[in-house]
Amino acid sequence: MLKKTKFALLGVVAAAALASTGAQAATQTASAEVDIVAAVTLAQNNALDLGIVATSGTAGTVVLPTSSDTRVCSTGVACLGTALRGRFTVSGANSGYVVAINVPASTTLTSAGNNMVLTLTPSMTSFNSTGAPQIFFVGGSLAVGANQAAGTYTGSYNVSADYQ
Amino acid sequence: MFKLLGKAWWLTAPKGVALALLFPISFSMASTSAYAAGDLLIAPTRVVLDGRRGTEVILNNIGDEEATYRITLELRRMNAQGRLDDVDLEKATDQEKSALDVIRYAPRRVTLPPNQPQSIRIGLQPNDGLADGEYRAHMLFRAIPKATPVAAAGSPTEGLKIQITPIYGISIPVIVRKGNVYATAALANVRIGKDNEGPTLEFDMNRSGNRSLFGEVHVTKPGVSEPLHVSKGIAIYPEISQRVVSIPLSPELAAKVRGEIVISYYEAPEAGGGLISQVRAVLP
To answer: Which of A123, A146, B44, B83 is in Cβ range 3.0-4.6 Å of A59 for a Cys bridge?
Structure first.
């Protein structure tokens, strides 16, 4: 099992290096060590974006599911523009490894002293790596108050891929 | 040989080789998507310090822009589902605070151009006064987001716009073992469960002793050597004596696990790969 993984990685090393046979042989000797110190990468592909929301005298919610980029806007709010789920890719996790995805339950967005709460939902809380890059999404639900002041609301949220 | 796990290896292997090897991995993924500022690579994914020697973790900027990364030690506590929950410093136990005191590392903030790796050195403070046992913190590597100017031109006159900055990163456990530490585990109560994504194969893992266990869960059929399923990187930490291990069942796997199965928990291959515990069960 361990051997197989080593050879799979070897292929990557050899293909990327495109080196002479002699150089590859040198790489091979060292590449056995790569399996022992498994590397992992985390990349953001899309930033979470809820687009533009028009408010009214009635409070409402904007829900961006983790399954699609289409918002569900309740009465009281109108959604304009386009939205995007947060999209991340975890790569390089060894096949079979269990990786947890940690996203806080909510975050507060502010604009000139006005606040809104954005509830966050990851598309998965953990995954069993197949060795292939694993994509996960972050969606959310935004609570918009009645006559919520216009403006650009800013905030941040933490996302981490956690190893046990 | 396998004792080398992320420790002595860095000290014995020529550094140039180690760094060079991180590149091909990112190369192979370049075709899948464009990279954003702050994307990162971490190796290894677990650190155990049980002697006086320190070790190193490699952080590589795989984004396409220069990025500044912050490295912090966080406290996490495993819950009964095996997930790691954040622990506020005010609510930390003495054991957890000791981990923060005893682990030293540098640098704690680093700015890297694209494809530039940096090693983070990890070592121990003198800890003669520390009781025997296992101490743990989770090292979190995060990119500090660049301040994005609020786009005045794009600001809507009616309605509101939302600008959310993700602060994303990778955390790995840093485990300190001092003196006489031991642990064993037993598996029990194999059952079919369910989570948000569908049916699961679940069992309880019971731990005794004063240290964590880490390894692989193999699901096999009696008399068949090739496992039906393998979950690697399964830990049970000393703060809990029992956790649930839950394995997602694809329709294919769900059909295969019916009848008699054997679930085995092995130490990680780099720690010797020995069998820790095993349980037989018959599933309907």
So the answer is: A146
